[in-house]
UniProtKB/TrEMBL annotation, chain A:
Protein name as catalogued: Sulfur reductase chain A
One Pfam family from the record: Molybdopterin
SMART domains cross-referenced by the UniProt entry: Molybdop_Fe4S4
Protein species of origin: Nereida ignava
CDD domains: MopB_CT_2
Gene Ontology molecular-function annotations: 4 iron, 4 sulfur cluster binding; metal ion binding; oxidoreductase activity
Reported cofactor(s): [4Fe-4S] cluster
Biased composition (Basic and acidic residues): 930-940
Lineage start: Bacteria, Pseudomonadati, Pseudomonadota, Alphaproteobacteria, Rhodobacterales
UniProtKB/TrEMBL annotation, chain B:
Record-level Gene Ontology MF annotations: 4 iron, 4 sulfur cluster binding; metal ion binding
Gene that produces this protein: ttrB
Pfam families (UniProt xref): Fer4_11, Fer4_4
Source species: Nereida ignava
Protein's name in the database: Tetrathionate reductase electron transport protein
Cited PANTHER family: PROTEIN NRFC (PTHR43177), PROTEIN NRFC HOMOLOG (PTHR43177:SF3)
Keywords assigned by UniProt, alphabetized: 4Fe-4S, Iron, Iron-sulfur, Metal-binding
Domain 4Fe-4S ferredoxin-type: 12-42, 72-105, 106-135
PROSITE patterns referenced in this protein's UniProt entry, alphabetically: 4FE4S_FER_1, 4FE4S_FER_2
Listed InterPro entries: 4Fe4S_Fe-S-bd, 4Fe4S_Fe_S_CS, ET_IronSulfur_Cluster-Binding
Length: 940, 251
C-alpha cells in the first residue's frame, strides 16, 4: 500500500458536563472530575485545583467507572431467609427494613443501650456516626482505627499533637532527606507519590526502611531491609549516636519541648516521675536567665535543659537528664542492635551521620519573623531539612506505640518537626492530646451517652471501667489491658460478643467492615462465632445489621442489610470535625454529592441513620416536637451545628459581612457553593503561621478565627508522656484505681513515658516459627473493593506469597510451586513466587486480594478464590498459650492496636496445589453474577 | 505493505523516568478509561468477572528485579506502550494501510476502518506494544492521545496524554523529541535517556530515563565518610551534661 493518511478528528467532544466530587476508591480523598455523557459516567480524571491530588489520579481512582457500575452493587434492603453465611436473602422495602431495625433497637435502648455494638469500619463520617451512637446511648462505638494505625496516630498526638498522613506531611518543598519507615504503597496515596517525584527531581535523598523493597521503597535511593518489628530499636540506636555526638537541636528542645521540664524524683512517692508543677498546675522548668523555678510558658523564660532543683533532700532533674541517661546506654549502641535489626553497625552510624549532616550542616532559614507563646520574637524560621513518614508498617506490632513514639522523638530531637524542611502539620492539627476529648462510657437507659466515646486518657481515672472494675465497652478499650486505646478495638468486638465477655450484647450493627473476611484476624474463627448457636438454637450473637454498598463476604453473615450507595451516588462531607483533607499550607474540606442518581433502591448509610435516628427518637435526630430533624445526610451536613459557628463544613458559612470560611451561621446554599467550587473549600495558612504552629501565636490566633479551637492553646512537645507514667504509678500500687495483679508488671514495663523497645518474638513462638509474614496493600487495589472492579482485578487478580532467596533455596522452590504456611494458630496452602529484594527472614503477600467463592459477584472459579488468599487465617486475636493459664491479646499493650505484623510462620513445600486452602463453601450471591464481557462506551 | 513518511514535522513521544516510577499503574488505568471512551472501538474486557479476565490495554507496567554487582537486589517498574518508532515495522508490515505514521507529529495510529485484524503488526513489533481487541477484532495501540493533545474542547493544560496528566509521581513527560530545545529533549540529554532495545533498529521516539545509582554506600565502599560527624562529644552521660552546659552557654 502507498502512504495513505486518513483524517482524524483531533477535537472530539469530551463530555456533556464535568461534575466535580471526591474520590472514595481508597481513603486518600482526592478531587475528581467526573465527565458525564447522556447523564452517565463516561470518564474520571483528577481535579487540578484540588489540594490533595492537584490533578493526578491513581489507578483506583481512574477505575471508578467500573465501581459505580459493578455487578456486585446491592440493589435493595434485604432480610436473611436462610442460615447465616448461606447468602439466602429476600429483598424488602426500606420501611420494612426500618421496622425490623427499630424492633431490635428500641427495646435495647430503653433497657440497656450497651446491648448495641455499633462499629463503622472504614467510615469517613465518624463525627456523624459517633453522634448517632452517642444519641443512642451505647458506649460501644468505634471505627477501624484499632486494627489499622492507632499506634501511629495516638503516639503522634500524645507526643506532638499529630502524626502523619491526615495530620502531617514532609515539607516537600524544602526537605533534603526523607526517611520512610514501613510505608506500604498507600496512606496517603497520591500525595506521597507526588512528593517523591518532587523531591527526587530536586535530588533530595530518599531512604526506605522496609523489609520489602517494592513501591516507594523500590524508588528510594537507599533501601534498609530491616528485620520486621525492630524499627524502634534501630531508631533508638540512631538517637544514641546523635545524642552522643551532640547532634541534637538544643535550642529547639529548650524552647519547644518538655525536655527541660523537671521530674519529681521523690523515691517511691505517688508523684515520682510526674512533672513538678506550680500551684496553677503548670509544669516547671529552671529559667536559664534567673536560675530559678518558672512555669514552662512564663513570659521571657528560657528553660534550662540541664536544670536541677533541690528540695527536701531530693534533687529533681529534667526530662532531658533522664533521656541522656537512658539513650546513652550501650544497649542502644549500633553494635548492640545490629544483628537484631539486620543492619550493620556501620550502616546505622552512617544513616545517623547523614541525618546529622543534613539537619545541621544543611540547615535552612526562611526570612519570616514570628512570635512564640512566651512573647519572644524570632526574626527567622530555622529549618532542619530531614523529614520522615511512616504508617502501618511500624504501627501494627505489639511494640508499635513505643516504636512510633521513638520515631516522633527522633524527629523532635533533630528539631525538624514543624520547621522548614521537616515534618509539617495540616490544620486543624496540631492539636495536643489535652485538647481532645476523654473517652466516655456512662450508660443511662433511654438516654444519650454522657459524652464522646473515643478520646485520650490521661491516667487511670479516665479508663472506661464499670463499678466492679470490668470493662465498660464490649471491645475492652480503655481498660488496663490497653489503657490508651484511643480508636477503640473493632477487631475484638465479635470475639468478645461471642464469648459474652465482658457482657453479652443483643445487636451488632456494622458499616463498611468486612469482618467475616479480610477485616478480621482469625477469619475462620470469626465465621464460626458469627454462626454459632446456643443450646436453644439461637445465634449467640442474636442480631446483626449491616450496611455495605456491595455484596461483600460480610453481607452473608448479617440478618438485615441496609444497602449503601456507591461513592458517586451520595452526599458526604470530609469534615474538619473528622478526618479532613488539609495540606500543610491550607485548611480545606470537601464534599461528595450525587453526580449520578442510584438506579437501585439504595440509600446513603448516613441518610438511613437520619431516618433510623428519628424513628428511635435519638437526641440530635429529632426536633422538639419529635419530628425527624434531618431529612437526609445532606440536610445534616448543611444544618447541623456542633459548636457556635461551627458545623460539618467550614466553607461559605454566613458571617456578618456575607459568606466566609471558618466560623459562621448555617448557609442553606452551602452545598451548592461547594459544587460550584469543584467540591471543596480551601483557605491558605498565613505565611507567618506556616511553621512552628504549636508555639506560633500567628497560627494560634488564626486557628481560633477559623474555629479549630475556641481559645488559643499553644503547647510544647511531649518527649516524656506523663499520662503513661500515671498508669505506671498505679501499677506500682499508687492511687485508688488499681490494675489487676496479672497486668501490673506489664504496665510497669510497657507504659514507659520515654520510648523503649521490646521484642514480640517470644510471645509469637519465633523459636519454632522463625519467619515473619507480612502483607502490603497494592497501589492499584484498596482492601476488598478492587476485586469487583473489572479493570483493577486484571492487575491484581491473585496474590502469590513472595519468598526471599534464602528461604526459596532452602526449600528448593521452583516457579509454579505451592507452599504450606504454618503459624501457631493455623495453616494455609498458597502459591509462592521468588523475590530477591526482600529481607531474608520475611515472606509477604498483597493484602485482601483473596475472596470467598460467591462474594463480590465474581464467578466461583475466579482467581481471587482459587489462587488468592488471606494471611488472616494464620493470625489469632489472642497470642499462643504460654503456660501461665492466660491468653494474652495479640495487640499492643498500650493502645490495643491489632499486631498483624508480628505474625510468625514456618514454610514448606506443599504436595497439594491449584486451590488455596482453606477453601470455604461458596456463598450464594444475593446479586447474581457479573456479565461475561465488557465493552464500555457511551459516546458514538 | 505500507510506507512510512520519509520525514515527520515533529516527533511527539513520551519520556518515562524509571528512577521515579513507583509502579502504581495509574497510567495504565487512566489510559484504559480515556481510550475506552474515545478513539475508535472501546477497549473491551473478556471474562470480566470470571476465571480468566483479560482485556485490551494500550499501556502496561511490568516489574523486574535487578541484581547489581554490589548491593541488594532492586525492583524496577517499567511502563510500556507504543514507542512511536521512526522506523516502525508495524507500519511497513501492514497489508491494508491501516497502520500508519502521521507526517505532522510522527504518531503511529491504526485506522480501524481499514484494519482486518490480521495481527501482522503485533507480530512485527519487537516491543509487544499492540493488542488485538477481542470483541472488535481490530488492532489497538497507544494513540499518544491524539484526541486529547490537540483537543480544543479541553483546557490547554489538559492537552497531553491521559497517562502523563495522571501520573502521580511525575514520571511521565510528553513533548517533541524532534526539537532538541524542547523540555523533553533537554531532560533526555540531562539524564542520559535511552532507546528501548536499540539493536532492533526501530528508532523509537519514546525514551526511558535510567534509574539513578542506588545504595551508593555499597559502591563507594566508604561507609565512614561522615563518621567525623558522629565523633562523641563526651564518653558517657555525665560527660554529655558537662558538654551540654557549655553548649547552652553558646546559644
Amino acid at each position: 500500500m502507498g502512504f495513505n493518511q486518513p483524517v482524524v478528528d483531533t477535537s472530539p467532544k469530551v463530555s456533556d458536563e464535568v461534575r466535580k466530587t471526591t474520590c472514595y476508591m481508597c481513603a486518600c480523598r482526592c478531587g475528581i472530575n467526573v465527565h458525564m455523557k447522556e447523564g452517565k459516567v463516561a470518564y474520571i480524571e483528577g481535579n487540578k485545583d484540588h489540594p490533595v491530588n492537584q490533578g493526578v489520579l491513581c489507578a483506583k481512582g481512574s477505575a471508578g467507572i467500573m465501581q459505580v457500575n459493578a455487578p456486585s452493587r446491592l440493589r435493595a434492603p434485604m432480610k436473611r431467609v436462610g442460615e447465616r453465611g448461606s447468602g439466602e436473602f429476600e429483598e424488602i422495602t426500606w420501611e420494612e427494613a426500618y421496622d425490623i431495625a427499630v424492633s431490635k433497637l428500641k427495646p435495647i435502648r430503653d433497657e440497656d443501650p450497651s446491648k448495641l455494638a455499633f462499629f463503622t469500619g472504614r467510615d469517613q463520617s465518624q463525627s456523624f456516626t459517633s453522634l448517632w451512637a452517642q444519641g443512642f446511648g451505647t458506649p460501644n462505638y468505634a471505627a477501624h482505627g484499632g486494627f489499622c494505625s492507632v499506634n501511629m496516630a495516638a503516639a503522634g498526638i500524645y507526643t506532638m499533637g499529630g502524626a502523619f498522613w491526615e495530620f502531617g506531611q514532609p515539607d516537600w518543598d524544602h526537605t533534603k532527606m526523607l526517611m520512610i519507615f514501613g510505608v506500604a504503597e498507600d496512606h496517603d496515596s497520591n500525595p506521597i507519590k507526588m512528593g517523591l517525584g518532587k523531591i527526587k527531581a530536586r535530588g533530595a535523598k530518599v531512604v526506605g526502611v522496609n523489609p520489602i523493597r517494592s513501591g516507594y521503597n523500590a524508588v528510594a535511593d537507599e533501601w534498609v531491609g530491616i528485620t520486621p518489628g525492630t524499627d524502634g530499636l534501630f531508631i533508638l540506636s540512631m538517637l544514641h549516636c546523635l545524642i552522643k555526638a551532640g547532634k541534637i537541636d538544643l535550642d529547639y528542645l529548650s524552647q519547644f519541648t518538655n525536655a527541660p521540664v523537671l521530674l519529681d524524683e521523690t523515691d517511691g512517692s505517688a508523684e515520682e516521675g510526674l512533672f513538678l508543677k506550680d500551684k496553677d498546675g503548670k509544669a516547671l522548668v529552671i529559667d536559664r536567665n534567673t536560675g530559678k523555678l518558672a512555669p514552662f510558658d512564663g513570659k521571657g523564660v528560657y528553660p534550662d535543659l540541664a536544670g536541677t532543683h533541690r528540695k527536701a533532700g531530693v534533687t529533681h532533674r529534667t526530662v532531658f537528664h533522664h533521656m541522656i541517661e537512658r539513650y546513652m546506654s550501650e544497649e542502644y549502641a549500633p553494635e548492640a542492635v545490629a544483628e537484631r535489626c539486620g543492619i550493620s553497625a556501620k550502616r546505622i552510624r552512617k544513616l545517623a551521620a547523614e541525618l546529622a549532616d543534613v539537619a545541621f550542616n544543611q540547615a535552612i532559614e526562611l526570612d519570616r519573623p514570628w512570635t512564640d507563646f512566651r512573647g519572644k520574637k524570632h526574626d527567622k524560621m530555622v529549618g532542619r531539612p530531614v523529614s520522615f513518614h511512616s504508617m502501618r508498617g511500624i504501627s501494627a506490632h505489639a511494640n508499635g506505640f513505643q516504636t512510633c513514639r521513638a520515631l516522633h522523638v527522633l524527629q523532635i530531637m533533630l528539631g525538624s518537626v514543624e520547621t522548614p524542611g521537616g515534618m509539617r502539620f495540616k490544620p486543624p492539627y496540631p492539636k495536643p492530646a489535652t485538647a481532645h476529648p476523654k473517652p466516655h462510657c456512662k450508660v443511662t437507659p433511654g438516654a444519650a451517652l454522657d459524652g464522646p466515646h473515643l478520646g485520650f486518657t490521661h491516667g487511670p481515672d479516665d479508663l472506661c471501667l464499670r463499678e466492679d472494675g470490668t470493662a465498660a465497652r464490649i471491645d475492652k478499650a480503655f481498660t488496663w489491658e490497653n489503657p490508651m486505646s484511643s480508636h477503640g478495638m473493632m477487631h475484638m468486638v465479635i470475639s468478645n460478643a461471642h464469648a459474652g465477655d465482658p457482657y453479652k450484647i443483643d445487636t451488632l450493627f456494622m458499616y463498611m467492615a468486612n469482618m467475616s473476611w479480610n477485616s478480621s484476624m482469625n477469619t475462620s474463627g470469626v465465621i464460626e462465632m458469627l454462626t454459632d448457636k446456643d443450646e436453644d438454637g439461637n445465634y449467640v450473637i442474636p442480631n446483626i445489621i449491616y450496611s455495605d454498598a456491595y455484596s461483600s463476604e460480610m453481607v452473608a453473615y448479617s440478618d438485615l442489610i441496609l444497602p449503601d450507595t456507591t461513592y458517586l451516588e451520595r452526599h458526604d462531607c470530609i469534615s474538619l470535625l473528622d478526618r479532613p483533607i488539609c495540606e500543610a499550607d491550607a485548611v480545606a474540606d470537601a464534599i461528595r454529592w450525587p453526580v449520578v442518581e442510584p438506579d437501585r433502591d439504595v440509600k446513603g448509610f448516613q441518610s438511613a441513620l437520619c431516618d433510623l435516628g428519628a424513628r428511635l427518637g435519638l437526641p440530635g435526630f429529632v426536633n422538639e416536637d419529635g419530628s425527624q430533624k434531618y431529612e437526609d445526610y445532606a440536610d445534616y451536613i448543611t444544618n447541623h451545628i456542633r459548636r457556635p459557628g461551627v458545623g460539618p463544613l467550614a466553607g461559605w458559612r454566613v458571617g456578618e459581612d456575607g459568606l466566609q470560611g471558618g466560623r459562621g451561621d448555617v448557609n442553606e446554599a452551602q452545598l451548592d457553593a461547594y459544587i460550584e467550587n469543584g467540591g471543596f473549600w480551601m483557605e491558605h495558612v498565613p505565611e507567618d503561621a506556616a511553621y512552628y504552629k504549636p508555639f506560633n501565636m500567628g497560627y494560634q490566633d488564626w486557628a481560633v478565627k477559623m474555629g479549630f479551637f475556641d481559645a488559643v492553646q499553644p503547647y510544647i512537645f511531649q518527649l516524656y508522656v506523663e499520662p503513661m507514667r500515671k498508669f505506671q504509678l498505679a501499677a506500682e500500687g499508687h492511687g485508688e484505681r488499681q490494675p489487676p495483679e496479672h497486668l501490673r508488671e506489664r504496665i510497669k514495663h510497657t507504659l514507659d513515658p520515654l520510648p523503649i523497645w521490646y521484642s514480640n518474638e517470644p510471645e509469637n513462638l519465633a523459636d519454632q516459627y522463625p519467619v515473619t509474614a507480612l502483607t502490603q496493600r497494592p497501589m492499584a487495589m484498596y482492601h476488598s473493593w478492587g476485586s469487583q472492579n473489572a479493570w483493577l482485578r486484571q492487575i491484581h487478580g491473585h496474590n502469590p506469597l513472595y519468598v526471599p532467596t534464602k528461604i526459596w533455596e532452602e526449600n528448593s522452590f521452583e516457579e509454579g510451586d505451592w507452599a504450606k504456611v504454618v503459624s501457631p494458630h493455623g495453616e494455609i496452602v498458597v502459591p509462592v513466587a521468588h523475590m530477591a529484594a526482600l529481607n531474608d527472614n520475611t515472606v509477604w503477600t498483597w493484602n485482601a486480594i483473596g475472596k470467598r467463592k460467591g462474594a463480590w459477584a465474581l464467578e466461583e472459579n475466579a482467581p481471587e478464590t482459587t489462587k488468592g488468599f488471606l494471611l488472616n487465617h494464620l493470625i489469632h486475636e489472642l497470642l499462643p498459650a504460654n503456660g501461665d493459664g492466660m491468653r494474652w491479646a495479640n495487640s499492643d499493650p498500650i493502645t490495643g492496636q491489632a499486631a498483624w505484623f508480628d505474625l510468625k510462620v514456618r514454610i514448606e513445600k506443599s504436595d497439594v496445589a491449584g486451590q488455596t486452602l482453606p477453601d470455604f463453601a461458596p456463598q450464594k450471591s444475593p446479586v447474581g453474577k457479573g456479565p461475561k464481557d465488557l465493552a464500555w462506551k457511551l459516546g458514538k | 505493505m505500507t510506507t512510512l513518511p520519509t520525514h515527520t514535522e515533529k516527533k511527539l513521544g513520551l519520556v518515562i523516568d524509571l528512577d521515579t516510577c513507583v509502579g502504581c499503574h495509574a497510567c495504565v488505568v487512566s489510559c484504559k478509561g480515556w481510550n475506552t471512551e474515545n478513539y475508535g472501538a472501546p477497549l473491551s474486557d473478556q471474562d470480566a468477572y470470571g476465571a480468566n479476565p483479560s482485556g485490551t490495554f494500550l499501556n502496561r507496567v511490568h516489574s523486574y528485579e535487578v541484581q547489581p554487582e554490589a548491593g541488594p537486589a532492586q525492583l524496577i517498574h517499567f511502563p510500556k506502550s507504543c514507542l512511536h518508532c521512526d522506523d516502525a515495522p508495524c507500519v511497513t508490515v501492514c497489508p491494508t494501510g491501516a497502520s500508519y505514521k502521521r507526517v505532522e507529529d510522527g504518531i503511529v495510529l491504526v485506522n480501524e476502518a481499514d484494519c482486518i485484524g490480521c495481527g501482522l503488526c503485533a507480530w512485527a513489533c519487537p516491543y509487544g506494544a499492540r493488542e488485538l481487541d477481542q470483541q472488535e477484532g481490530v488492532m489497538k495501540k497507544c494513540t499518544l492521545c491524539v484526541d486529547r493533545i490537540y483537543n480544543e474542547n479541553l483546557p490547554e493544560e489538559d492537552r497531553q496524554p491521559a497517562c502523563v496528566r495522571t501520573c502521580p509521581a511525575g514520571a511521565r513527560h510528553f513533548g517533541d523529541l524532534g526539537d532538541e530545545n524542547s523540555d523533553v529533549s533537554k531532560l533526555v540529554a540531562e539524564r542520559g535517556g535511552v532507546d528501548l532495545m536499540p539493536e532492533q533498529g526501530t528508532k523509537p521516539v519514546n525514551k526511558y530515563l535510567p534509574p539513578r545509582l542506588k545504595d551508593d554506600y555499597t559502591n563507594t565502599g566508604d561507609i565512614d565518610i561522615l563518621a567525623p560527624l558522629l565523633e562523641p562529644v563526651a564518653p558517657d552521660a555525665k560527660g554529655i551534661l558537662g558538654w551540654l552546659d557549655k553548649a547552652l552557654e553558646k546559644l
